[in-house]
Amino acid sequence: MDNPKYIYFLGIGGIGMSALARFFNNASVMVVGYDKTPSPLTHTLIDEGIEISFIDDVVSIPSIILENKVESLVVYTPAIPRDNKIFNFFKEHGFVLKKRAEVLGMVTAQTENLSVAGTHGKTTTSCIVATILQHSNMHFSAFLGGISTNLASNYYYQSAPSQHLSVTEADEFDRSFLQLKPQYAVFTSTDADHLDIYGKQEELEKSYQDFASLVSDKNNVFVAYGSKHLITGVTYSASNTNADYYAMIKSRSGKGTHFSIRNNLGEDPIEDLYLNIPGQHNLENAIGAALMTRQAGVPLESIIAGLVNFKGIKRRFEYILTTEKVIYIDDYAHHPSELRAIISSVRELYPNKKITAIFQPHLFSRTQDFMADFAYELSQVDDLLLLPIYPARELPIAGVTSEAVLAMVDLSNAQCVAKEEVINTLKNHQVEVLLTLGAGDIDRLVLPLKEYYAD
Fold it and tell me: What's the predicted TM-score (pTM) here?
């Protein structure tokens, strides 16, 4: 179905689903949808004119969808449970159903696609790419996995008389990224994750290699140095001078980094760059974004402007509060490597301050796969509160609990706590730097914690 008149999104509140919903809504296609629970994102979609139901019942499906089956498309996320009543109704009654990834591949197929893949770092990198393009005179669409502060959305469209570029996050979950047709790609990392889908790390790595093979010109493939053994392409690093391109840092602070990009290829360096967010991992993401956009023909002045004006992403190293007494940072980190990146960056920025972290593990399967790694990384803070595991699409696994993680943490000031007891618990803690970490619903603590410490 190339040109549906009506689209129903099952799981419309997901970050990837909502970007597609916004694309079609902006294209004047009638968009409606369902999600399990309301959220700030679904409220925003409703404000943008999209009708959303939170009731898993066939009676909630708008009549215009039921009466126009031939002209309707149902887009669903793999996270939708197979016992979902609406999903099964559409399936049993012969509606056209497509996964989100397939539809994203369809709408970007006629563009020159710039994709960002990686177990972590892809949202920040793709948002930097989009911000660089925003500071150019180029025609592009961006489908992002986070809410870019610069773009004020996870979807952005800029019209210009030039080749239509698209920016996509290449999601490895469920091998979704194999639906894309990239001309350029960045690989930020290839660490193990989603082993509930892949079974073993080797299968995940093969999937990344399959995705890399979709880019015909290997000069258009940019690979973080740590993944060079898996992916053939141009390597880059924020620290390793053996990479094809690497950073030479001039100065850094809690606000950002002054740097240049040097190389081992005999080219002139790219001088006088400034990235407007802190963190070594973010610097590496910026290098990948800068190299890919340069290769795609984006002017250097647009790259410089995009980096210096980049304001970050909601829930990625996001400063929530900075006072004389408390610094509060919120981050989406939900993988051991992501915890290492955020904790080490915060430790480097605030070496003499006590770090208190609140972490909500995401998925029973991921917690089971990386329990020892989670415990090790969490042991690097000074004070730890562990929330119960956020299940998302999963059922509990025997023996896989936050208490089991806590038992492996090498830290005297660590405890498990219910989400609703966090603020009361923190009243007895001396908090200097506070981190909230996780990909579940821990974000619902952000405003209450901000208000508590602001007072």
Answer: 0.82
